[in-house]
UniProtKB/TrEMBL annotation:
Stated name of the protein: 1D-myo-inositol 2-acetamido-2-deoxy-alpha-D-glucopyranoside deacetylase
Function text: Catalyzes the deacetylation of 1D-myo-inositol 2-acetamido-2-deoxy-alpha-D-glucopyranoside (GlcNAc-Ins) in the mycothiol biosynthesis pathway.
InterPro entries hit by this protein: GlcNAc_PI_deacetylase-related, LmbE-like_dom_sf, Mycothiol_biosynthesis_MshB
Organism (species): Streptomyces pristinaespiralis (strain ATCC 25486 / DSM 40338 / CBS 914.69 / JCM 4507 / KCC S-0507 / NBRC 13074 / NRRL 2958 / 5647)
Gene3D superfamilies: LmbE-like
Length: 295
């Protein structure tokens, strides 16, 4: 295909802020290296809890204006990461944040959790066939930690990867495209444990400390197949996370969500290859998500 950069990375996330927490350093690194970095966010995060007291009026049980506000935070975060292509699945506001598992919001009209997977995936197929990424990054089947929108994001992203490659599926959405490599976001258990040990040993300004179970995607180290050292982009990642001020409080190498429990901010980001061929030697981790990919 003409006019496309050589390396093209697509990330699919549930809410504004997930991309910066999970992949901020990776996104900044590849954007700086001239790769096409495309972010698709499935909802506006309308049901999030608001941290700053002076913005509490935006909350869903008050003015219900958090969604558009978070779209603005996301745009600011993408500026910090140098990412220019960010989109909402089906357009801004098409799918609504479903809230935590078990809430009545799960089944509200327009809630992402209640969306038909194939119908939602068709919106993503259109993006895949136009951007033609070699690499897709999304969550594991549990969405990393069981949030309905994260689980649904996994289903939609994986389904879209399949459908985008099928010539018979919706030819009106563009020419078929097979994504060479698919990764799930991961955190190695040893890295999470070490991060919490650092956090407990220091005087970070949080009312409490989270637990390993609060961190999405923690798995045994043996399941990690790729690690991206984003140390050089640590400042960019922290700045992007700060841009999501309604959701995240950053303090040095740590941060907290609305539960005010501190957790480590990782600048090396970890992945598990679940489709496609590893570009690393057997038994080694990849250090480039595009390793082995021919454009
Ligand atoms: Zn989320």
């Amino acid at each position: 295909m003409k006019d496309l950069p050589d390396r093209r990375l697509l990330l699919v996330h549930a809410h504004p802020d997930d991309e910066s927490i999970n992949n901020g350093a990776t996104m900044a690194l590849y954007a700086a290296a001239g790769a096409q970095v495309t972010l698709v966010t499935c909802t506006l995060g309308e049901e999030g809890e608001v941290i700053p007291a002076d913005l509490a009026h935006l909350a869903p049980d008050r003015e219900d204006r958090l969604g558009p506000y978070r779209a603005g935070e996301l745009a600011a975060a993408m500026k910090e990461l140098g990412v220019t292509d960010h989109r909402f699945l089906g357009g801004q506001g098409r799918f609504r944040d479903s809230g935590m598992m078990g809430l009545e919001q799960n089944h509200r009209e327009g809630a992402f959790w209640s969306a038909d997977v194939d119908e939602a995936a068709a919106h993503l197929v259109e993006v895949v066939r136009s951007v033609r990424p070699q690499v897709l990054v999304t969550y594991d089947p549990d969405g990393g930690y069981g949030h309905p929108d994260h689980i649904q994001t996994h289903r939609v992203a994986m389904r879209a990867a399949t459908l985008a490659a099928e010539p018979g599926f919706r030819p009106d959405l563009g020419a078929p495209h097979a994504i060479a490599k698919i990764y799930w976001n991961r955190v190695p258990r040893s890295v999470a444990e070490e991060g919490f040990a650092r956090l407990r040993a220091c005087e970070a300004d949080f009312p409490g400390v989270a637990e390993i179970g609060d961190i999405p995607g923690v798995v045994d180290d043996s399941e990690i197949t790729a690690e991206i050292d984003g140390t050089a982009y640590a400042d960019r990642k922290a700045a992007a996370m700060r841009a999501h001020a309604t959701q995240i409080a950053v303090d040095g190498p740590f941060f907290a969500l609305s539960n005010e429990l501190g957790q480590p901010l990782f600048t090396t980001e970890y992945y598990q290859l679940v489709a496609g061929e590893s570009g690393a030697e057997p038994g080694e981790r990849e250090h480039d998500l595009f390793a082995g990919v021919s454009s």
